[in-house]
Amino acid sequence: MRSIYVVAHPEATHHVEGVVGGWHDSHLTSAGRSAAARIARALRAVIPDGAEVELISSDLQRARQTADEVAELFGAKPVLDRGLREKSYGEAEGRPQEWLDRRFVPPPAAGDRMGHHEGVRGAETRGECARRVYAAMDEVLRRPCEHQIIVTHGFALTFVVAAWIRMPFESLGSVSFRAPSGSITVLREDDFFHNRQVVSLGDMSHLDS
Fold first, then answer.
1. Residue 104 sits in which domain range?
2. What is the CATH number of the domain that holds 19?
3. In this structure, are residues 196 and 1 in contact, taking their beta carbons and an 8 Å threshold?
4. Tens-digit pLDDT profile for residues 138-162
5. What average pLDDT score do residues 16-31 get?
6. Looking at the 3D structure of the chain, how many domains does it have?
7. Taking a C-beta distance cutoff of 8 angstroms, is the pair 36, 206 a contact?
8. Is the pTM of this model over 0.90?
9. What is the pLDDT of residues 55-69, one digit of tens each?
10. Given 12, 145, 153, 178, which is the most exposed site by the fewest CB atoms within 10 A?
């Protein structure tokens, strides 16, 4: 049985500073570091000792810092993959959120949502982000491993889950799997039917006081 634990990195500086994230290389806040340690302990509690574990992370600092907390408990060196980065917001990254809000062109309700340009120079389209994440997931799933931990970002996580359930690319225009910062999503494939499940989505119970 293959189990994949998808972590949305916890609170980072861009969250509290009110600036646009994307590829802006923000780092975890002190609260984020504390949450990352809780995430690591929660994963350690459900993955058996001695089990084969692979840890794959976005290469952005806030995801790497989260992965490092997990790595410390599992003795697994994180594999960094740019394909798991958050959607790029181009020239808006690192600027105040209100700067982006004034320029943002929302996607249409119908039509070419995947190729829609949001009005910000250098930003990825939804389709470009999805193709990148799908390619990263192809690499992850080519490697047979009983337990895989993926550390990524809130928007990109939708495409991680969509790739897992083999959602066709042309169906991705409106899909959204909501998972808060610091959450854990569990995906599982059984050995008999080879059905792929979304066991839990955006679980935050490990952060409860």
1. 2-207
2. 3.40.50.1240
3. no
4. 999 999 999 999 999 999 999 999 9
5. 98
6. 1
7. no
8. yes
9. 999 999 999 999 999
10. 178
